[in-house]
Amino acid sequence: MFKLCYISQPVREFSFKELDSMLVLFRKNNHNQGITGLLLYRAQSFCQILEGEEAKVTELFRTIQTDNRHQNVVLISQGRIGSAAFYGWSMKFTVLEGSQIFSPTNLPPIVDL
Ligand SMILES: Cc1cc2nc3c(=O)[nH]c(=O)nc-3n(C[C@H](O)[C@H](O)[C@H](O)COP(=O)(O)O)c2cc1C
After folding, report:
1. Residue ID of nearest Cα to ligand 1 atom 13
2. 47 in contact with ligand 1, CB cutoff 6 A
3. CATH level 3 topology of 2-96
4. Which of 19, 50, 55, 64 has the highest count of CB atoms within 10 angstroms of its CB?
């Protein structure tokens, strides 16, 4: 089992309706690939944790990195894990309160779990 975390910023403001419909597709793909994880949204920035088989997670991350809906993709951490922390969540989406965008020095504590 492999886990990867990155941060990024959307190229424009997405409505929750738009994010919801994007998530429908992400979840379908992730379910098919055995990928689980968490997408956090705060102050116009993303922090995503992807977990699953290493080859599948790195392949998905390569695709995500080139996705033109966001920019400034920064890999925060990656490595092997014992078991999936987000088992059963094909991509949990949570909006966090706060006005600071995610940055390497301003990450949610869940990233360290
Ligand atoms: C912030 C963000 C998070 C994303 N997360 C996922 C994800 O968890 N799973 C997924 O399949 N695609 C995700 N995508 C979309 C991928 O970049 C890509 O569009 C999708 O995997 C379809 O790729 P394909 O057209 O090569 O099949 C995400 C895109 C963005 C901008």
Report:
1. 26
2. no
3. Alpha-Beta Plaits (3.30.70)
4. 50
The first and second tokens of residue 45, run together, are 């920035």
- What's the token pair of residue 38? 């968490």
- Residue 36: C-alpha distances to residues 64, 97, 111 (Å): 15, 23, 14
* Helices 54-65 and 16-33, axial angle in degrees (round to 10): 150
Tens digits of per-residue pLDDT, 45-65?
999 999 999 999 999 999 999
Residues 77-96 pLDDT 10s: 999 999 999 999 999 999 99
CA dihedral 43, 44, 50, 54 (to 10 degrees): -130
Å from CA of 82 to ligand 1 middle = 25
